[in-house]
């Protein structure tokens, strides 16, 4: 008589499932008792110190962990170097022995590159997408690697002695405003460079300093076409105002890029350490998952907006105007 297959619950045998539930229940109880909320309700129940998370004291400036001469080496700089090293090692190992039928590592690297390349060409077309891909992919990979490495358990809890007491050895580079600012400046410079190079210096700057209609109106006035001249002068003044607003928006973009990334990543980190303080372990897990998603979204937004602005910069104004008319 054939043996009746044992029933499984979410892919686990019944004893394993019960054991899993008991462990989850025990962690939940420890999480509540070890957090600030549980201790405020039931008091200290004698849990070991390593279970209890100290009250967080977020520091916005990056902390110096060493000096090279008079130059401070901060914990965010170290984290950024590690992120670059991780990316370099990953792609080196994935591509050092390329095969027609790729292994897991090569397939993973190819999937990442294909996804980012497809993203570029879908927005900017084949010609410009290929051109913008290196910058867009670099920004995306750097931001997301920094964000996700900061979520590795224990990554941000290693302390070393500094000039002003113990400081964190690692801290996500995205939470240091200098790194988002540098990325924003790189994005700004490259977008302007592509715009100037592709459609010409005078044609590109004409988007910001548009005096054609204004001077044409005065020319008509001097020729005796008073009505048409005044209309064109007024329209020209509007064009000049819009151009200056557009020029201002180019520089404001640096601030918006910087504070969007810095604010979201810093806010996420403060949220995580606050949840760990209130109720460590189980309660903080959903917020970890949320931060994984936020890291991906922020990397995509930063790189995607760079791509969109770059594409707009290399598109002649007449084409933009025609597009807006439709």
Compact overview of the structure:
The chain has 10 helices and 6 strands, in the order ββααββααββαααααα. The chain has 326 residues and is mainly alpha-helical.
What does this structure look like?
With 326 residues, this protein is mainly alpha-helical. 69% of the residues lie in helices and 6% in strands. The protein contains ten helices and six strands. β1 (8-9) and β2 (12-13) form a beta hairpin. The protein is elongated and about 95 Å long. The termini are far apart. The mean pLDDT is 86.
Helices and strands in order:
Layout: E1 8-9, E2 12-13, H1 14-34, H2 36-42, E3 64-68, E4 71-74, H3 75-95, H4 104-149, E5 159-162, E6 165-168, H5 178-199, H6 201-205, H7 212-222, H8 226-278, H9 285-313, H10 317-325
Antiparallel strand pairs: 1-2, 3-4, 5-6
Helix pairs in contact: 1-2, 3-4, 4-9, 5-8, 5-9, 7-8, 8-9
State which percent range the strand residues make up.
Answer: 5-15%
> Largest sheet, order of strands side by side?
1-2
Structural class: mainly alpha
Radius of gyration from CA coordinates: 28 Å
Shape annotation:
elongated
Note the gap between the termini. Answer: 74 Å
How many helices does DSSP assign? 10
Mean pLDDT: 86
Low-confidence stretches: none
Largest sheet properties: 2 strands, antiparallel
SS elements, strand count: 6
- In N-to-C order, the SSE pattern is EEHHEEHHEEHHHHHH
Helix content: 55-70%
Short key terms for the protein model shown above:
two-stranded antiparallel sheet, 10 helices, elongated, mainly alpha, 326 residues
């Amino acid at each position: 008589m054939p043996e009746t297959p044992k029933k499984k619950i979410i892919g686990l045998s019944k004893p394993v499932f019960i054991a899993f539930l008991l462990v989850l229940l025990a962690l939940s109880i420890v999480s509540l008792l070890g957090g600030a909320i549980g201790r405020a309700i039931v008091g200290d129940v004698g849990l070991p110190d390593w279970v209890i998370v100290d009250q967080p004291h977020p520091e916005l400036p990056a902390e110096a962990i060493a000096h090279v001469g008079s130059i401070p080496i901060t914990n965010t700089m170290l984290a950024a170097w590690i992120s670059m090293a991780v990316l370099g090692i990953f792609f080196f190992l994935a591509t050092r022995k390329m095969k027609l039928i790729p292994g897991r590592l090569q397939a993973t690297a190819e999937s990442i590159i294909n996804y980012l390349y497809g993203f570029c060409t879908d927005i900017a077309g084949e010609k410009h997408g290929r051109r913008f891909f290196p910058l867009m992919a670099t920004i995306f990979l750097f931001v997301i690697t920094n964000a996700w490495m900061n979520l590795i358990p224990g990554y941000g809890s290693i302390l070393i002695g500094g000039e002003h007491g113990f400081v964190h050895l690692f801290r996500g580079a995205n939470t240091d405003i200098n790194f988002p600012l540098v990325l924003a400046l790189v994005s700004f410079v490259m977008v302007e460079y592509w715009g100037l190079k592709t459609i010409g210096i005078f044609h590109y700057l004409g988007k910001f300093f548009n005096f054609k209609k204004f001077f044409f109106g005065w020319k008509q006035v001097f020729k005796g076409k008073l009505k048409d001249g005044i209309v064109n002068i007024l329209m020209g003044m509007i064009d000049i105002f819009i151009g200056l607003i557009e020029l201002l928006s180019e520089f404001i973009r640096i601030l918006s890029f910087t504070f969007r990334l810095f604010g979201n990543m810093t806010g996420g980190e403060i949220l995580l350490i606050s949840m760990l303080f209130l109720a460590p372990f189980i309660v903080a897990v959903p917020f970890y998952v949320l931060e994984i998603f936020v890291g991906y979204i922020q990397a995509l937004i930063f790189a995607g907006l760079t791509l969109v602005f770059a594409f707009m910069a290399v598109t002649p104004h007449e084409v933009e105007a025609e597009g807006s008319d439709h």
